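Hi Y.,

Following your request, here is the sequence exactly as I used it, all 286 residues.
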Amino acid sequence: MSANAQENNARRLKAVLDSLARAGQETKVGGSAVLAEAIGLFPLNAQESELLSGGVPRGHKTLTAATTRLVKAGWLVKGRGGWSITEEGLRATVAFPDAVSLATALAEGTPVPAGTPLPEQAPAEAAAVLVETVQLVDAVEQAESAEPDRTTADSTGKGSEEGTEDGTAGAAAAGLPAAPEEAAYPQPEAVALAGDFGTLMGCPEDWQPKFDEVQMRLDPADQLWKLTVDLPAGFYSFKAALNRSWDENYGAFGQPNGSNHELHHPGGPVTFRYDHRTKDITTSRP
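Below is the corresponding structure, written out as C-alpha cells. Let me know if you'd prefer a different format.
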C-alpha cells in the first residue's frame, strides 16, 4: 500500500470511530453506513477504486479489514444489530484526537491512558437529529418485519413469489407517505444479487452475477426486484449487479460501484428487494 493510501486509510479509520462516537455508546449503526460515510469524507483514489475479483473496491476491503484492529483494541463491537463504540473507544477519541496518533496507537498496541475523560456530548440539536433518525429507521424496520412474507424459498435458495406487495403497509406504519403508483418504470433486463453467499444458493462461485441462482424477479405490482433465500447465521456482503455482469452495479445507498451492502443475519429466510428507482437494496425477515 502506498504512503498516500495508508494516510487516507488512517483518516477513514478515525472517521469510523468518530462517527460511532457521535452516535453514542448505546446506539448501534449499520457497518456499511459507517464505512460509506468514511469513504465519502475521504474518497478512494484511482488505485483504491480498482475492483477486486469479488467486485469489491480495493480501498473498501482495506478499510473493512482495518476495522478489526478497533475491535481487537476493545474500542468497537460488531454485532448482529450493527456496530457500536465502547466506553474505552469513546475515551480513545479523546486520547488519540487525530488520524496519525490513532494509527500509531493501534499499530503499537498503545492502550488509552488512565484517567482519559469521555468526549463532550454532541450539541443538543445534533443529538436530537440523531435520535429522530434512529427512531425513523427503527419504525421502518419494525413495519417491514410486521408485514406478512409472501415469498418462499425452494431447496436451491431461489425465491418463488406467491403474491405481491404494494409497499404501502410499512410506510403507513412508519408514518410516511405512501409511494405513488407507477404503471411502469424503465427496468433492466436482469438484476442479480451478487455476494459472498452465491455458493450457498447453488452457484459454482461467489460474487458472480451471471448465474441463474442469484437472479432476482421483478414484481410488476410495486416495481421491485425480489429474492428470498434461506441463509445460515453469519455476516454477508452483497451488491446489485445488472444484466448479468459487473458493467453496471450498485452498492450501499444506491451508489454506482459503491461499497458493499452488509447483512448481519441470525439465520433463516431473508427477503432482498432491489428498487431500480433508488438503485438500493433493502432486506426483511418473516
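The helical segments are 3-23, 31-41, 58-72, 87-95, 99-108, 124-146, 168-173.

Thanks again,
Q.
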